[in-house]
Structure formats: structure tokens, C-alpha cells
Design a protein that fits this description.
24% of the residues lie in helices and 35% in strands. It is α+β, with helices and mostly antiparallel strands.
């Protein structure tokens, strides 16, 4: 009798807190909308490696310069803290980062705790159906302001595109041990559309070294 007053058969399923954001009916909802000083980006990739191996690679913060654009050095300063240096054209941005959640083989969440950058994010490692690789999902919040302008000027890349490209580099390095590069490949005049694509996709951005520390 009491259940008839509490049951809501026509109610919509409520969103729940889940991997790399909010999940509704088994699907990720869109990330929050950008505003004047805040941008959100979510990107995913299917990587042919185990969740445990990919977690170890990502958690090895000092190897980040091998696959993250323009990161010149990362120094571990504690069990959960590290110092990051981003540099290009003789200029640098520096900040400190802290791991907020660390679930081996499943999830890492972080935030900056001082310096030239203010951002937070998480990465999720989920076994793909049938055991065919791992779905890696990154959700990152970038609080930009003056930092965003400095980033775009210094790195010649939209910060949101950098997050997407970094996951592509991570996938390539995990699967093949190297990152494909296009620098120096010849092509003719590109025209207006070609120049726009060059700017959007950051062909002028230096590709990370792609060195696999485990293979060295």
C-alpha cells in the first residue's frame, strides 16, 4: 500500500555520477557549456591495450612530455603532486598539479594547485566489450582567462584541441611505441581552406618525442 504513494512509474531516469562526467541511460551527457573563463572538453579513444597498462602509462607523469604537446618537463614532487613546464618559442608556462583520485586500472582525477594554469580533469579506463582493448575517456575543465590567451599565443593551438590531440598521441604510443609525424612532408600551395585546416589542426605544433620509456 505504501509503495503506491512512493513509486513513480512515469518518472524519467535521473542522471548519475559516472565515469568522466555524468551518465544517463548508459550514455555520457554533453559536458557543461563553456563560459567566458571556462571551457570543457571530452574526448574518447579505443586503444588496443589493457586498462592496467594504460593506467600505468598515464600515471607515470614524468613521461608526459613523450606524448603531450609542448610539455617540456614534468617532475614528481610527491606521491600525488608534480610540477609541470610547458614551453615553446623560448617562453614557458609552469604549474603544480595534484592527483585527487587514484583507482589503479580504472580512473585518475587531478587538478592544478598553483602556477600559470588552472584546470582539472579525469581519465577513465574501461575495458571494451568482448575484451577488445580499452575505451579511454578524458574530461577536462580549462579555466582560461589570461592563461588561455597565453596558451593560444604561445602554443599556436586551441587548448581544447590540445586535449584531443594528446589522447591521439597517447593511443599511438601505447599501440605502436611511436607517434606518427607529418613534419617535413612536401605539398603544394594550400589555399585558404588549407591554411584554415593547418591552423585548426596545428600542423605547426611540434609533435611530442614519442619515446617509449619502457623500451629504452
Amino acid at each position: 500500500m505504501l509503495n503506491s504513494f512512493t513509486e513513480k512509474p512515469n518518472a524519467e531516469t535521473l542522471p548519475q555520477s559516472g565515469s568522466a562526467g555524468t551518465i544517463l541511460n548508459g550514455r555520457y551527457l554533453a559536458p557543461p557549456e563553456d563560459n567566458d573563463h571556462q571551457r570543457w572538453v571530452r574526448t574518447s579513444a579505443l586503444i588496443q591495450s589493457s586498462p592496467e597498462d594504460l593506467y600505468r602509462r598515464w600515471r607515470d607523469v614524468e613521461s608526459a612530455p613523450h606524448w603531450q604537446e609542448q610539455i617540456s618537463k614534468v617532475t614528481r614532487t610527491g606521491d600525488t603532486t608534480s610540477h609541470w613546464v610547458m614551453g615553446a618559442t623560448g617562453k614557458t608556462l609552469e604549474w603544480d598539479s595534484e592527483v585527487l583520485a587514484d583507482e589503479p586500472g580504472k580512473r585518475i582525477a587531478w587538478r592544478t594547485i598553483g602556477g600559470d594554469s588552472e584546470n582539472a580533469g579525469e581519465v577513465i579506463f574501461e575495458a571494451a566489450p568482448g575484451g577488445h582493448g580499452t575505451i579511454v575517456t578524458v574530461l577536462q575543465e580549462l579555466k582560461l582567462g589570461k592563461f588561455g590567451n597565453a596558451w593560444e599565443t604561445l602554443m599556436d593551438r586551441n587548448p581544447k584541441q590540445s586535449v584531443i590531440e594528446n589522447l591521439r598521441h597517447f593511443k599511438a604510443l601505447a599501440e605502436t611505441g611511436e607517434i606518427p609525424r607529418t613534419e617535413g612532408q612536401p605539398h603544394g600551395p594550400r589555399g585558404a581552406i588549407g591554411q584554415i585546416k593547418k591552423s585548426m589542426y596545428g600542423e605547426r605544433v611540434k609533435i611530442p618525442t614519442g619515446n617509449d620509456r619502457r623500451a629504452s
